[in-house]
Amino acid sequence: MAKTLYSSLFFLSFVVVELLGILPNVKGNILDDICPESFIPPLCFQMLRNDPSVPKGNIHGLLSTILQIAQDNTTSTYKLVKSILKQPIKDPNVKAQMTNCLRNYNDATDYLKQSNDFYKTGAYKNTSLYSSLVVYESVSCNHGFNKVPSELKPLSEAVQEFSNLSARIADNLK
């Protein structure tokens, strides 16, 4: 069972990265090349506009920043879900789904830590793989709801956006 799950996750992350395309040749401002191809371009521009790596064309510095933003949002989402679960929840389906989300974001936090560790050692394909797994965990959390709770939606979108970007960039580094 576990072997099948990991094989499925590996395949899913590979497909996600392949479907996202390759990192364009950077000409000038990195954001002009990266953000239009992201899940939520305005969020990408908003969060990265003031990053010092951007005007210098420093793709490694940008990846480091993106991984940190993804980590911060994943940790915040985990804490939010945990705080929601401490409150009384009348609907047993919502409570069960929030419990699943807590597990998803716990795993996502671990995956991002591993992704960052791989990045620091230059293992960019593994950085990409583990960042893709974070996207999978966030999407899995959201799929359990008929409508994603309003307090969860912006954080989960940020997790997906910046984990996706880190996967795309890392997949194309040598």
Automatic annotation (TrEMBL):
State any single GO MF term.
pectinesterase inhibitor activity
Q: Which domain of life is it from?
A: Eukaryota
List the Gene3D superfamilies hit by this protein, alphabetically.
Invertase/pectin methylesterase inhibitor family protein
Give the keywords, sorted.
Disulfide bond, Signal
Task: Tell me which positions the record assigns to the signal sequence.
Answer: 1-28
Entry-linked InterPro entries: Invertase/methylesterase_inhib, PCW_Enzyme_Inhibitor, Pectinesterase_inhib_dom, PMEI_plant
Residues in domain Pectinesterase inhibitor?
Answer: 26-169
Any Pfam family hit = PMEI
The record ties this protein, via NCBIfam families, to: PME_inhib
Family assignment from sequence similarity: Belongs to the PMEI family.
* PANTHER family on file: PECTINESTERASE INHIBITOR-LIKE, PLANT INVERTASE_PECTIN METHYLESTERASE INHIBITOR SUPERFAMILY PROTEIN
Can you name this protein? Pectinesterase inhibitor domain-containing protein
Say which species the protein is native to.
Solanum commersonii (Commerson's wild potato)
